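Re: weekly structure request thread

Next one in the queue (211 aa):
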Amino acid sequence: MDVDSSDDDIGQAVAFYVEGEEPPGDSPPMTAEEYLRQVRYEAKRCPKTVVSNIDPRKYDHLKTNRYSNKTSVQIPKELLPSSEWESQFLLHFSRFRQNLEAQHKDPKPNETKFNVPRPDARQEWKRLTFNSDQTPTPHVIARIDHVRVEAVLSYFTEWLQNNVLTHARGMWLYVLLARLQPPLLAETASAVRAIYTRCCQLRALVDMNSE
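Done, posted below.
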């Protein structure tokens, strides 16, 4: 039997040839072939495009918020940044991201090359970004790709747990977050939230009388 390998009526490849079609009856199909003929009958009568007329807003109250932008860490009011400071910070951060992206796409030809560690070279990254007072330089930043950024941010979540955030570490975090590109993997988003929580904890421990 010469069997065509496709079924033009339903727009699907034929996996198991069944001859003919039949409408569903009052009783369940008695054989597999009868069932497949009924499936073919219904498939040929299904519209090619179906548009839902359900208003999704009706179900907003049933949604569960799995994540929150708030943290359980209580930071004293006097240690919280002002709205003006936040606006200036976000503006500077946005411009910094744009500058980094432009440098990454158009590197300078005379720029000193720097062999950045592999993403899985945890100890090398720790020496470079965490156990050193060296702040990131432009030619180093330009060579850190998205895969390395994700890896180092995940390392930072562990390194910061029992350590303080020095100026150099803060600079590295700032640069890494600026090099991060959406969309984020679930693991990366979790790492960013963990770093945020740890930074809130460290901020809450600041002694206002120490300065």
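The chain is about 45% helix and 0% strand. Residues 122 and 155 are 7 Å apart (CA to CA).
Next request, please.
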